[in-house]
């Protein structure tokens, strides 16, 4: 680099480092070829904007004069005119020998050669495509002065001619390879007389002094001969450029030992000529950034200031250089027509997108139509068949083999002709070929063949049905994914409504498709084709959509759940249930195990949609202002955007370097804000995912962010673990206000609907309301006091208020604390409702814009969409998990305590409830003949109640701590109990005698009565013991696990016993010698435990062949093989105990949401 340029850069280094954003500047320098990708990565790795700028300048200082010029031009392009002015005096003076213009990079020698050769000038708006230009120049260099062909090929409007002209706009290339000059011929679509005229004109240009002949050649052969002589004798080592060649016979006229560069849509045109051949394919898209750059130059705006429609135009035309230039030129004349031209594109009105320019075709459809007309007659219909393909879809060869009823080789030959003519694109992935159309080609075909589309769709369905009658659709077939994704689309487009309903209302289809692609696409199809499906049966359509929406989080997991078992949990009136029952009965006959949830009619589903978009905890989810989209973020460091109705993914952004804690849509839905553990706040374009702003003023992790509800003056509020709230104006670089008052981390904040108040909640247990204008505190609510009467242990009373959300009228505010969600009336501060459904901590709640639904997000990796009316009207009884069950003949009697501490007896078959008494119950049990009830409390007391007259007639205080387990013996005379201490008490309550079983070193987890006065107990000390309850002696002692033993059971023949532990495993042991027989819960591939958590209970079947376990859900195991026979997914999780009938056909449990499950094996 010149000393002057270097000194200028060093002199203004500080100003440059302070102001420039490196991202777009580096894009320009990479395009110019003066910065490498690895250098860009090195700059990006710097932590701050200023350090990134410093690193870039350091790199430029080590480079040459051209790098300085590229940097200068990049500053001008990106609107840093003041900074560019500082560097202007340092622009290197290029040596006079080359005559180089420092800004354009073109020498006077190049300009003269190109002008004489008729090479077109650069377009008014020009964006460099350095990589492609370099590729063409490399291929031209390979000719080394010898005859040969370099072909630039691509679809209509991809910029081939501009690239060809740009490739020869290079001093060293012309001087070194083509000193004889460059001669440009615009060929186009010609007949023989037209070609003769082109040749005559060329000969005249090459022989201006008429030294070879004063007469024009009279035919093509004579012209070819004249051209050969002129090129060899008068213009040796020159380059002939043939632009827009359509036919191979045209090239034969130029096949005379010349060096030729040609542009074409058909790469096979050179097949008929001799000599070395090189090909440069041109992709059909400029890429988003280049496309925006062209538009910005046309309308004379900075790229960052372009309206939203600019991004949509680039997306709609897939960055086609022709379309971007056509629209850019039109916008230069009519700058307010962004929306109009976008609509023309979306509505495929190509005739209205016209331009007078050097391009040979007046409108886009005309350019594409010419290509199709040039196809052979016998293959034109096959191209028409491609009208049914969707945008961005790569179709396997096998699909078209079925459509055309042909062998693979025949189909590939036809498709290759389309590929050669740039009418189709081919993606070669290993052995298989996949074909796709450019979006503009799809639009052109659908518009051109609109009257035939229904029949074309019907044709593919008919062919599919015909083929797959004899060939079942299996996942290992290359066409399988295509049919699962697009069969419904083709049926709907073919108006085959009956077939579509039969497909969508089939549990087999639902099972096969969700197993391959998950539930979101299916839910989307139910929404998309609702108008058709409702014609058949509105209720059935709702049944299937609700089934998929509420089980989506299960259907997207591995191993894939049994969909028939999930279907059996649906209401009995549901079509899903009826199909599932039919299938289950057939499979039961073949030895399969299925469960009926016999008391499910008492359960109301409050959620409307459950999705699982993240791979880790979900910290926040929010609605867009129009209610159509949901954004979510979490521990996996990503921001996800998906459709609110179906859960279909729209955007996935790696948003931060650490966990993303909160996200928020702006009122106009243009932006999404995110904040993170990395202390940064970022603003993103909600449609494109582009980063707009980064704020970095908080000193600790930023926990929450929220925009004002009015877009008139957009503000963003953020709250952090530094105890402060900050207000940001998006038009300013620094924070507007900082709010002080919380004494611990600020977890969440929300503006009131009128933007006058800001609500914030904190780990200090309070909810505060702030005045937005003055930034002063207005009101404070202590949420912790509402937990003081909770059933949770008092020592665990730290209450962190996680989040809050206002209702639309500003009268109510919703708050989440622990795993509960409360709705408060602001004036009266009274609780309206609460709801449970998540399996772990709830991190976020938010109302939809109209208040009809709300979102909750949780550590359980799910986002739930709730209906507000259902939640507020819900009066469901929630049971505590300590229940006891007695099975009598055909009866199931359940003793339970509900959330308001009522002791109740429930008839499992009829659902009848008898309320017995109110008490501080920690555990309870029924006597085998239903004469007595015993219950223990937190003070160590045990009471016995007589069922006949509901009278307590025995009580004693023997335990010093909370009684956790209690059970009658078969004769009802003795009561066995265990507490937080390490002993078990055997109390003959009729004789008032006691025996203490002492031997465990830590708290007894639970116990189970066996035959012959024996008792099995297990403890936190990792041991399992067998006791004689008459003598109090230990008869067997097993050390089974490293950690706590959670549950145990002995088989009926007393030869095997099972144990489960906090290590998430279940083991089966030999009773006589303590040998391990099976390990039932190995870790799955993803590392998640097979039981979804700790295994908390086990029970053997009477024949010892089956084992049931409870944990995150319920599983049935084959004891002989150790394999799972069935899984039942409860709504909640953390099941504590499973009660099993003597015949091993009825099972009872309660989940952590307080829902009672009475399950029966299907026969």
UniProtKB/TrEMBL annotation:
GO process annotations (BP): apoptotic process; regulation of apoptotic process; system development
Stored PROSITE patterns: CARD (PS50209), WD_REPEATS_1 (PS00678), WD_REPEATS_2 (PS50082), WD_REPEATS_REGION (PS50294)
GO cellular component: cytosol
Keyword Calcium: yes
Key word Repeat present: yes
WD-type repeats, residues: 611-652, 653-694, 695-738, 739-780, 835-867, 956-988, 997-1037, 1038-1079
Molecular-function GO term, any one: ADP binding
Domain CARD: 1-90
Keywords from the UniProt entry: Apoptosis, Calcium, Repeat, WD repeat
Gene3D superfamilies from the UniProt entry: 1.25.40.370, Death Domain, Fas, Helical domain of apoptotic protease-activating factors, P-loop containing nucleotide triphosphate hydrolases, Winged helix-like DNA-binding domain superfamily/Winged helix DNA-binding domain, YVTN repeat-like/Quinoprotein amine dehydrogenase
PANTHER family membership: APOPTOTIC PROTEASE-ACTIVATING FACTOR 1 (PTHR22845)
Protein's name in the database: APAF1 isoform 9
Source organism: Pongo abelii
Phylogenetic classification of the source organism: Eukaryota, Metazoa, Chordata, Craniata, Vertebrata
Gene expressing this chain: APAF1
């Amino acid at each position: 680099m010149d000393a002057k340029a270097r000194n200028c850069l060093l002199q203004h280094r500080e100003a440059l480092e302070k102001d420039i954003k490196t991202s777009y500047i580096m894009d320009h320098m990479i395009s110019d070829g003066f910065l490498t990708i690895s250098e860009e990565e090195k700059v990006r790795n710097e932590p701050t904007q200023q350090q990134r700028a410093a690193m870039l300048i350091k790199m430029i200082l080590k480079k040459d004069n051209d790098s300085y010029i590229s940097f200068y031009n990049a500053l001008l392009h990106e609107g840093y005119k003041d900074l560019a002015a500082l560097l202007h005096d340092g622009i290197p003076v290029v040596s006079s020998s080359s005559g180089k213009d420092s800004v354009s990079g073109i020498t006077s020698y190049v300009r003269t050669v190109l002008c004489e050769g008729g090479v077109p000038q650069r377009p008014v708006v020009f964006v460099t495509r350095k990589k492609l230009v370099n590729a063409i120049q490399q291929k031209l260099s390979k000719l080394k002065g010898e005859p040969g062909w370099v072909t630039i090929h691509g679809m209509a409007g991809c910029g081939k001619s501009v690239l060809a002209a740009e490739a020869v706009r290079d001093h060293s290339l012309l001087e070194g390879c083509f000193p004889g000059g460059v001669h440009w011929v615009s060929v186009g679509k010609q007949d023989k007389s037209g070609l003769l005229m082109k040749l005559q004109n060329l000969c005249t240009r090459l022989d201006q002094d008429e030294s070879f002949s004063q007469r024009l050649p009279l035919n093509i052969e004579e012209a070819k001969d004249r051209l050969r002589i002129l090129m060899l004798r008068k213009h040796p080592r020159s380059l002939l450029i043939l632009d827009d060649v359509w036919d191979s016979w045209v090239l034969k006229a130029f096949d005379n030992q010349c060096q030729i560069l040609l542009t074409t849509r058909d790469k096979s045109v050179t097949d008929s000529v001799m000599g070395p051949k090189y090909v440069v394919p041109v992709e059909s898209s400029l890429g988003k950034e280049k496309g925006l750059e062209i538009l910005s130059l046309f309308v004379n705006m900075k790229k960052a200031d372009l309206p939203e429609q600019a991004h949509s135009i680039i997306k709609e035309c897939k960055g086609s250089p022709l379309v971007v230039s056509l629209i850019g030129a039109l916008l230069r004349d009519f700058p307010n027509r962004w929306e109009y031209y976008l609509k023309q594109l979306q509505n495929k009105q190509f005739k209205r997108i016209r331009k007078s320019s050097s391009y040979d075709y007046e409108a886009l459809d005309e350019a594409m139509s010419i290509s199709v007309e040039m196809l052979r007659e016998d293959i034109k219909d096959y191209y028409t068949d491609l009208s049914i393909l969707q945008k961005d879809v790569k179709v396997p060869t096998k699909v078209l083999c079925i459509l055309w009823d042909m062998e693979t080789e025949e189909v590939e030959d036809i498709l290759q002709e389309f590929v050669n003519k740039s009418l189709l694109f081919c993606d070669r992935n290993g052995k298989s070929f996949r074909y796709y159309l450019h979006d503009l080609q799809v639009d052109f075909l659908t518009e051109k063949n609109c009257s035939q589309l229904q029949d074309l769709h019907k044709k593919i369905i008919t062919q599919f049905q015909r083929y797959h009658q004899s060939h079942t659709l299996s996942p290992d077939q290359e066409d399988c994914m295509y049919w699962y994704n697009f069969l419904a689309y083709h049926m709907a487009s073919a108006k085959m409504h009956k077939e579509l309903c039969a497909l969508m209302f089939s549990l087999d289809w639902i099972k096969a498709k969700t197993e391959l692609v998950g539930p979101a696409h299916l839910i989307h199809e139910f929404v998309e084709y609702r108008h058709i499906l409702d014609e058949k049966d509105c209720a059935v359509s709702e049944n299937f959509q609700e089934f998929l929406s509420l089980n989506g989080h299960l259907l997207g997991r591995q191993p894939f759940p049994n969909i028939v078992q999930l279907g059996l949990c649906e209401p009995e009136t549901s079509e899903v249930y009826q199909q599932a029952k039919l299938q289950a009965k057939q499979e039961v006959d073949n030895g399969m195990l299925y469960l009926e949830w016999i008391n499910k009619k008492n359960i109301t589903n409050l959620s409307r949609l459950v999705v699982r978009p993240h791979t880790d905890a979900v910290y926040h989810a929010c609605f867009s202002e129009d209610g159509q989209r949901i954004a979510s973020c979490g521990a996996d460091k990503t921001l996800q955007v998906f459709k609110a109705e179906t859960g279909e993914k729209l955007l996935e952004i790696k948003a931060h370097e650490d966990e993303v804690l909160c996200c928020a849509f702006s009122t106009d839905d243009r932006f999404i804000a995110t904040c993170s553990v990395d202390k940064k706040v970022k603003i993103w374009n909600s449609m494109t995912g582009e980063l707009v702003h980064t704020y970095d003023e908080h000193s600790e992790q930023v926990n929450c962010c929220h925009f004002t509800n009015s877009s008139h003056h957009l503000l963003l509020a953020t709250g952090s673990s530094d105890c402060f709230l900050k207000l940001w104006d998006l038009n300013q670089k620094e924070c507007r206000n900082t709010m002080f008052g919380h004494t611990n981390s600020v977890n969440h904040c929300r503006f009131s609907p009128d933007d006058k108040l800001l609500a914030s909640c904190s780990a200090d247990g309070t909810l505060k309301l702030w005045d937005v204008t003055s930034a002063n505190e207005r009101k404070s609510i202590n949420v912790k006091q509402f937990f003081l009467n909770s059933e949770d242990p008092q020592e665990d009373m730290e209450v962190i208020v996680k989040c809050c959300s206002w209702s639309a009228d500003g009268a109510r505010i919703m708050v989440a604390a622990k795993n509960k969600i409360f709705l408060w009336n602001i004036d009266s501060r009274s609780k309206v409702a609460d709801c449970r459904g998540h399996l772990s901590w709830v991190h976020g709640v938010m109302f939809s814009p109209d208040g009809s639904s709300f979102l909750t997000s949780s550590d359980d990796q799910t986002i739930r969409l709730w209906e507000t009316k259902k939640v507020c009207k819900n009066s469901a009884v929630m049971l505590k998990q300590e229940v006891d069950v007695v099975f009598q003949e055909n009866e199931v009697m359940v003793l339970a305590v509900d959330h308001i501490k009522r002791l109740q007896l429930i008839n499992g078959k009829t659902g009848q409830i008898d309320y017995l008494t109110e008490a501080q119950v920690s555990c309870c049990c029924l006597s085998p003949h239903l004469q007595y009830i015993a219950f223990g409390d937190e003070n160590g007391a045990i009471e016995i109640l007589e069922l006949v007259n509901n009278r307590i007639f025995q009580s004693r205080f023997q335990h010093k701590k909370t009684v956790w387990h209690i059970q009658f013996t078969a004769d009802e005379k003795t009561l066995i109990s265990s507490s937080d201490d390490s002993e078990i008490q055997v109390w003959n309550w009729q004789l008032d005698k006691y025996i203490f079983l002492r031997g465990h070193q830590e708290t007894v987890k639970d116990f189970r009565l066996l035959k012959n006065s024996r008792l099995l107990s297990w403890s936190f000390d990792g041991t399992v013991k067998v006791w004689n309850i008459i003598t109090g002696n230990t008869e067997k002692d097993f050390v089974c696990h490293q950690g706590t033993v959670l549950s145990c059971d002995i088989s009926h023949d007393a030869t095997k016993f099972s144990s489960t532990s906090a290590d998430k495993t279940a083991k089966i042991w030999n009773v006589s010698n303590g040998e391990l027989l099976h390990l039932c819960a190995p870790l799955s591939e993803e590392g998640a435990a097979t039981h979804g958590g700790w295994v908390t209970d086990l029970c053997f079947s009477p024949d010892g062949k089956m084992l049931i376990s409870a944990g995150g859900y319920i599983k049935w195991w084959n004891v002989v093989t150790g394999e799972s026979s069935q899984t039942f997914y409860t709504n909640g999780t953390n099941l504590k105990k499973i009660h099993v009938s003597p015949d091993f056909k009825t099972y009872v449990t309660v989940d952590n949401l307080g829902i009672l499950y009475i399950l029966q094996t299907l026969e």
